[in-house]
Write a structure and sequence with these properties.
The complex is a heterodimer of chains A (about 120) and B (about 140). By secondary structure, chain A is α/β, with parallel strands linked by helices. Chain A is built from 6 helices and 5 strands; from the N terminus they run αββαβαβαβαα. In chain B, about 35% of the residues lie in helices and about 25% in strands. Chain B starts with a strand and ends with a strand. Classes of the chains: A alpha/beta (about 120), B alpha+beta (about 140).
């Protein structure tokens, strides 16, 4: 699924990475615990998180996350935006809750990383 | 002979900067041209170790070295030390502060994650004497 479609499905604002919306996203993951996200490779994965701190940006950079979506309308602070821009990480913000956002993406065909891992 | 040896300092309780060292480690390894999977494993270990030092440690250092057979990380802190290493290696066991939990850490996965992503992990710690982690990653021959 293209990042642009994720943006539409989630009615999201693009805060960083307007130029990367054509990027292909292979799977999705959700989490607020950084160590859970650090357990597996997340290349080509969109991560949905309710954690709105610099650490979510750093975790995404370290694990190779393709794009980050902040749920419940959270907006990153300027330092987060600067770091995301520096590392070329697209950041979106959706008004939906974590559960609803994941459900909307899943119902449009995006699958979780468990499927990606078992391939 | 080391091809590269670089030391970084880690400041205790500085949650704003926590992770900067790991990101620098990642970019150095990328410049050297290691494969993405190795870079991912080393960066994750550097990040978890750095966060541990920030959370629990007094100030500390992370030493990255690379030679022809391995990549190594030695992370020292002058914090309170680990009282029970066996317990600290259990997934879910945590002594993290509320402050660390608010940043998404302190789920008791740090050391287990380092073990899972490295080829060798040695922990030298005693209550009141700080902690030293020696983490290494084998480089495949050829």
């Amino acid at each position: 699924m293209q990042l642009d479609e994720i943006k539409k499905v989630l009615k999201a604002n693009v805060l960083v990475g307007e130029d990367k919306l054509a990027m292909n996203i292979e799977a999705g993951a959700g989490g607020d615990l950084m160590s859970d996200l650090l357990r597996r490779p997340l290349n080509g994965v969109v991560v949905l998180s309710g954690l709105n701190t610099l650490q979510v940006i750093r975790t995404a950079v370290i694990t190779g996350v393709a794009a980050l979506v902040l749920v419940r309308g959270k907006e990153p602070d300027p330092e987060m935006v600067a770091q995301a821009r520096l590392h070329g990480l697209p950041v979106l913000s959706t008004p939906f809750t974590m559960f609803t956002a994941c459900g909307r993406l899943f119902s449009q065909g995006l699958r979780g990383i468990d499927q990606k891992l078992s391939e | 002979m080391p091809i590269l040896s670089k030391r970084f300092s880690i400041k205790a309780r500085d949650y704003l900067r926590a992770g900067e060292v790991a990101i620098e480690v990642k970019s150095i390894l990328k410049t050297i041209g290691f494969d993405a999977e190795l870079i991912r494993r080393v960066s994750i270990c550097a990040y978890e170790a750095e966060i541990n030092a920030v959370m629990h440690g007094g100030d500390g250092t992370l030493h990255l070295f690379v030679n022809t057979s391995a990549v190594g990380l030695v992370v020292r802190d002058s914090g309170p030390g680990i009282e029970n290493i066996e317990l600290a290696m259990k997934e879910g066991y945590s002594t993290a502060s509320e402050e660390a939990r608010e940043m998404g850490f302190g789920a008791g996965m740090g050391l287990p994650n380092i073990k899972k992503n490295s080829d060798s992990l040695k922990i030298d710690s005693e209550k009141g004497k700080g902690t030293l982690l020696a983490i290494s990653f084998d480089l495949k021959a050829g």
